[in-house]
Write a structure and sequence with these properties.
By secondary structure, the protein is α+β, with helices and mostly antiparallel strands. The protein is about 45% helix and about 15% strand. The chain has a single domain, classed as NADH Oxidase (3-Layer(aba) Sandwich).
Length: about 210
């Protein structure tokens, strides 16, 4: 099956089979794909939180307007944007580049000033919005990687971010819950699995210039 076949197979799962757990190596593979998602300047200004704990998930479900996927899926993945992006964050990133690539930090001075300029040139609100956009890129990779592995997902924005932040202690970590995905296996009787995929017609969706 090609990636397009797999994307046709997947759908936003409304009813998960709560008896089915994702095998640890499969979950690791999907999360590895998320970690490889591209981000602006490579900053990865968000974090990925995986929640399996039943008690925590019961609270999250309440904060997600009772959506049953939160407790019925195998795990819930929360993509949480960094809210405290500052020079230190940028410098730490440059440190990491220098270490991983084995280059002198001074050789990265030009890149560092670009990174710090991108951070200092934004208001705190703009920085958070910027970070949130990166979380959505990770969501796209998560959706695709899960489909490749025949794992079901429901991407979700239908939750109260403030309540999620409180339940998961994200605010004190300098994070805000941005978008989430429940991940697991569809229930055999989820009627949504039988519905035709609705997308805008290609001639309306694509613009070739
Ligand atoms: C960012 C985002 C947020 C979404 N939020 C919810 C949600 O809170 N609850 C839900 O059941 N589905 C949610 N969906 C699923 C969409 O409704 C679904 O992806 C869309 O209708 C297309 O259908 P398909 O994914 O089955 O192809 C969300 C999808 C995205 C990408």
């Amino acid at each position: 099956m090609t990636l397009v076949d797999k994307l046709n197979w997947r759908y936003a799962t409304k009813k998960f089979d709560s008896t089915k757990k994702i095998a640890a190596d499969k979950l690791r593979y999907i999360l590895d794909a998320v970690q490889l998602a591209p981000s602006s300047l490579g900053l990865q200004h968000y974090r990925t939180i995986v929640v399996e704990d039943a008690e925590v998930r019961a609270k999250l479900r309440e904060a997600a307007y009772g959506q049953s996927q939160i407790t019925e899926a195998s795990q819930v993945v929360i993509l949480a944007a960094e809210t405290g992006l500052n020079e230190d964050f940028g410098k730490k990133y440059i440190d990491n580049v220098a270490t991983v690539r084995g280059v002198q930090r001074e050789a990265l001075a030009g890149y560092e000033s670009m990174v710090l300029g991108a951070i200092n040139g934004r208001t705190p609100e703009q920085l958070t919005v910027w970070a949130q956009k990166q979380a959505y890129i990770a969501l796209g990779v998560l959706v695709s990687a899960a489909a490749e592995q025949d794992v079901d997902i429901c991407p979700m924005e239908g939750f109260d971010a403030d309540k999620f932040n409180e339940i998961l202690g994200l605010t004190e970590k300098g994070l805000t819950a941005t978008v989430i995905a429940t991940i697991g296996y569809r229930a055999a009787d989820d009627p949504f699995s039988q519905q035709a995929k609705v997308r805008r017609p290609k001639d309306e969706f694509f613009i070739h210039i």
